[in-house]
Structure formats: C-alpha cells, structure tokens
Amino acid sequence: MSVDPRARRIAVVADSLFAQLLPELHDAGYGIIQLPPRGLPDDVAREWLDQVEEHVAEFTRTGYEVVVADDGAYELPFELPQYAIQPPSTSRLTPET
User: Fold this and answer.
1) Number of Cβ atoms within 10 Å of the Cβ of 46
2) b or e along 49-73 (b: 16 or more beta carbons within 10 Å of the residue's beta carbon)?
3) Are the C-beta atoms of 45 and 68 separated by less than 8 Å?
4) Confidence grade of residue 22 (pLDDT, cut at 50, 70, 90)
5) Euclidean distance between CA atoms 25 and 47, whole angstroms
6) What is d(CA 68, CA 86) in angstroms, rounded to the nearest whole number?
7) Long-range contacts, stretch 90-94, CB < 8 angstroms, 24+ apart
8) How does residue 72 score in pLDDT terms, banded at 50, 70 and 90?
9) Torsion 17-50-60-4 (CA) sign
C-alpha cells in the first residue's frame, strides 16, 4: 500500500494562481483542485464548480484540511479558509550601493 503524499491536505486554487502556487503547495504536501479559468461559458464554469463542490464536501467529510486560494473570478458555492500565500523571500536581495 502506498502512502498518500498529500498529507490529508487539499488546496482549491484559482486558475490565475495555479502556476505561482503549485511548487509551494506541492512542497507543503497539498493535493490541488483547480478552479475554472475566467472566460468560460457560464454553464461550463457552473458544471466545473459543481464538481469542485462535490470534491470539497467529500474531502471535508473525511477529515482533510481543505483551503482555498481564490482570485474572485467566480462566486464559490462553498466557504473555506483562505490559504495564506507566502510572500517571496527578500533574504537574497542586496541593496544597491
């Protein structure tokens, strides 16, 4: 039997934030559910969001930690804690002299 690398954590991520957050979420052991991109026909976006809502409900029901990194593109049919996006490190920056 294999071990689930997600550590029972799921992040629901806006399409516009997906590429930016993927490495960070992967390193933190999150599985990812992607939200639909902006500009989809309303019926397609609604079906996508309905599927996401079903997954969120099941993960929540079974004890997973589920968070959202949302950009406000769609009104989500569920409420989740917001994922705290970590600011980029400035430790490698050096002041210009």
Assistant:
1) 14
2) beebeeebeebeeeebebbbbbeeb
3) no
4) very high
5) 25
6) 14
7) none
8) very high
9) negative
Q: Using CA atoms, how far apart are residues 54 and 45, in angstroms rounded to an integer?
A: 14
- Reduced to 3 states (helix: H, G, I; strand: E, B; else coil), residue 74 is coil
Mean pLDDT, residues 52-56 taken together: 97
User: CB atoms < 10 A from the CB of 31, how many?
Assistant: 18
What is this structure's pTM? Answer: 0.81
Given CA atoms 11, 17, 23, 28 in this order, what sign does their dihedral have?
negative
Sheet architecture: strand order including 30-34: 30-34, 9-13, 65-69
